[in-house]
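DATA SHEET
Item: assembly model
Revision: 1
Owner: S.N.
Input lines:
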Amino acid sequence: MADLTIALAGNPNVGKSTLFNALTGRHQHVGNWPGKTVAKQEGKLMIEGKHLTIIDLPGTYSLSAHSPEEEIARNFIVCGRPDAVVNVLDAANLERNLYLSAQILETGVPMILVLNMTDVATARGLQIHPEVLSTRLGIPVITMAASRGQGLGELKRLLATIARTPREAMLGSSVCA
Amino acid sequence: MTSFALTPSLRMTYASPIEVELTRLSEALGHCPDLVARYPMRWLAIQLLEGDTLLQAEVERLGGSVASEALAASRMRLETHYGEDLDVAMVDQRYRFVHDLAAQALTRPKTPSLTMSDRVDRIVTNRWLGIPIFLGLMWVVFKLTTDVAAPFVDWIDAVLTGPVSHWITSLLSITGLSGGWLESLLIDGVIAGVGGVLVFIPVLFSLYFALAILEDSGYMARSAFVMDRLMHRLGLHGKSFLPMVVGFGCSVPAIYATRTLENERDRILTGLLVPFMSCSARLPVYVLVAAIFFPTMAGLVIFGLYLTGILVAIGLGMLLKRTLFGNELPTPFVIELPPYRLPTLRNIWHQMWERTSAFLQHAWTIILGTSMVVWLLLALPVSGEGSFADTDVDQSAFAAVSGVMTPVFAPLGFGSWETSGALLTGFVAKEVVVSTMIQVYNVPGAEEEEVGATTIGEDLLAIGGGFLSATGDALKALPSIIGINLAAEEDEQAPDGLTGAIRQGFDASSGGHGALAALAFLVFVLLYTPCMVAVAAARQEFGSRWMWVSIIGQFVIAWLAALIVFQGGRFFL
């Protein structure tokens, strides 16, 4: 059975743990202070008969290994061979969140962008164009309001597609040993 | 779906001199199979040019001199363009890339509106109002955990010592096992020990309720921000405060939360300070002792203890920063303030339940285990005429073991074997201090008020009625949080067996200054090692050397602080 490993990465406090709980049905303590998830958490999800392991990485602003959390996140993304990284972003603070995305992009790992908290962004009068990001970066972009359960279905459908797709089609070059 | 590619098709390009070197460097590194097997080459080259020391060491180890020379050569060539600031240039270019990307993907409103959150923050994180607001909120939390929870504490206590004990005794007499050591184990060991701690569930429940609201509303992150200014002036890092706030709940996650600190020394320093923040397990001890010695101002005493914890932590932090941990470049404090949100009931309930059930699990394992050990030691006679499970507690093995410690605590006013024993078991977990105290001060016979035989129906009715009246009392106590006292002053009841025994015990060991000794005892409980799990966490995070520094340091500080309270207080009174 082809198991898949999906890592959730993003800045602190963008709703990674909420998404993790929604995906895996686990009840990891969800808090809004940085440093809550200090080690990576693991949960399982079954989609279309495939076992997906979801890894919730500690929230970081960058992948430069300045703190133990950044090191954990970086090591997993670069050396943990995740089949895909789901990069969760706070849509209301898109620019700051995209810095980490740019760094993940540089690792060449397969990735999906999840623009979370779109409800907050909309309330602030921000208009997000996910299709622009998707076309420019060439990767799937999903909009979401995880606390209201919006966008979760779409992410699950995307994960199902990943589970069906042969690994070689997604992964260009090999990563770490 | 036509195409399905997850690997990004867009590559972020740096300025051409950097790109040239990236290509050269990744090619040079590509000759080393060990590196190729481990890292994506372009990524590795980027990190190396940016000056990542961890990866540079890795490259030197795996790639040898060829790789290091290639890196040095690339850096040298780039120095003509960027001088010493190559890393800054690269980060800057990345920001520019991100800025362009965001500009295309985002339409901002013409006039950015000041959100509700911003408006609230103008007040809450205000330079002058921030700290008073923080203290005010803390005060509300302690009123909630003392006054509002108190009626429920009494209710659970009544249920456990009344109907539940009664049921166990009847059950034992039906099976013909009454009067023996089994009854003693169940009543004096399990009910007195574990039950004594379970009584405080309402206290913890209300604390967890308050913490959940503070956290979910977004205030918790602000408290760190508010305190940063103060902390900074004291020479500490603002980020240190957040693990400390977490420490109000439990020291263990707080110790792990120090990982957010980038500087290793700041991290260890914070790890040493976190245990001084009064964790929720200490609260039952405060409530028990404060209710006996300071019934009219228990809330104030408890608030004072929490404040003492913070002050000791900050004071010690300043001291250590200027001595052992000095001369470090300060790293800037950046914290994201989440927007204020109305906490959802579901989330709050979830957190309360999760933490309370963790506590219950604790009760069934560590507290039950320790209570049984204490019971066993209490049941074993080492002198006198008693036999197993029928001995005077003074002549038990527990009294003998704890007695060894009494000289240490004598100058602090609580040098009795009872309190020494409670503090000894308190190393395991702080709730155990309560269970041990109830066990050792449990005067046989005094507690058993002869009640006429009741049926289970009557018992259940009494339990239900008790709960309703407790709820009523708690509601009446709510306005007292802001200083309005609705509840009529309760007639001070004659001290029951336990209260009387504890008061007598402290009076005897302190030469008549029972209340002062009790305060010193609470200060000691506040400051010494929180529990074994926290010790294990400290060891895992900082190594065993720092773990010992932490254990011994806390003991010395706790001892000195309790000494100051008791001897100083005696001098003035």
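QC remark: Chain B touches chain A through 63 residues (CB under 8 Å).
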